[in-house]
Automatic annotation (TrEMBL):
Source organism superkingdom: Bacteria
PROSITE patterns cross-referenced by the UniProt entry: PROKAR_LIPOPROTEIN
Pfam families: TPR_16, TPR_19
InterPro entries membership: TPR-like_helical_dom_sf
Protein name per UniProt: Tetratricopeptide repeat protein
SUPFAM superfamilies, A to Z: TPR-like (SSF48452)
Length: 283
């Protein structure tokens, strides 16, 4: 009899312990699941920003293959493809996202970006037109400016560039693009001003330095601007000014600038040497 009671008590205790431990197990599982989600989110962010573009593409392709219903992973794949300079593939992924229930205005803007990179300007314009006007972001206005530029709608382009520049703490790129737009229109003083502004935000942007000397040379200002530059950059900028001077008929000045570029460059400056030799043969 006592044996039976003992067994009964033992079973009761076991059931009690089991009942007590089950919620704890569930809590542990929930906590581990949360940690896994956090770890995955962090890894996704690292792959999008810091990883080699091709590695990021491979990572997100694998992730999408394992979880094809995850829109965030599809979006990560599209962004990685853009970083890897594969905009056509990125546009295909983004088209699928925007046509699905999980698509957002951000995805449509990203699709427009990929389409512009793929030289599909009309499709990009159509995608941006489908974005609600209340969706106001730097990327949206940056792309709107580029499309207005391509359509030679200068007033709209200037307005969009100005808006975009005011919506970021790093406007060097958009200011450089705006300056290049002014340069192609023949507004050389306006372009010069914008390139100088771009360099106040990013003193290492060589594209802005090169565009700056182009805008100055177009006004027959053949001296180097006062901006930070390395010795190699100085030689390359002198070369750019030299070619601009020769193109405008100022051949003697151009020859002198080519000679300066060759002398300034710390190594052999093949392009400048060839240009000087070609110029000598013509005279």
């Amino acid at each position: 009899m006592r044996h039976t009671v003992g067994v009964t008590v033992l079973v009761a205790v076991s059931l009690t312990l089991s009942a007590c431990s089950k919620p704890e197990d569930e809590n542990v599982e929930d906590a581990l699941a949360s940690i896994n989600v956090i770890d995955e989110s962090n890894l996704n962010e690292v792959m999008l920003t810091s990883a080699d573009p091709e590695e990021a593409v491979a990572y997100f392709r694998r992730a999408v293959g394992e979880k094809p219903g995850r829109v965030d992973l599809q979006r990560g794949l599209a962004k990685s493809l853009i970083r890897a300079k594969k905009p056509v593939e990125a546009a295909q992924v983004l088209t699928g996202i925007t046509q699905g229930p999980g698509g957002t205005s951000e995805d449509r803007v990203l699709l427009a970006d990929a389409l512009i990179r793929s030289n599909e300007w009309k499709r990009a314009e159509a995608e941006l037109s489908a974005v609600p006007p209340t969706y106001e972001t730097f990327d949206r206005y940056r792309l709107e400016a580029m499309i207005a530029d391509a359509n030679k709608r200068w007033d709209k382009a200037d307005s969009f560039y100005d808006t975009a520049a005011g919506m970021t703490t790093r406007p060097a790129g958009v200011l450089n693009n705006w300056g290049y737009s002014k340069l192609t229109r023949g507004d050389f003083p306006g372009a010069e001003k914008l390139f100088n502004q771009a360099l106040t935000y990013d003193r290492n942007m060589f594209a802005a330095k090169n565009n700056l000397v182009l805008s100055r040379a177009a006004q027959r200002k053949y001296d180097l601007p006062i901006v930070p530059m390395t010795q190699v950059e100085r030689a390359q900028l002198l070369y750019t000014i030299a070619l601009s001077a020769i193109k405008q008929g100022d051949v003697i000045i151009g020859r002198g600038l080519l000679e300066d570029a060759i002398e300034t460059h710390p190594q052999h400056f093949e392009e400048a040497v060839r240009a000087l030799e070609a110029l000598s043969k013509q005279q």
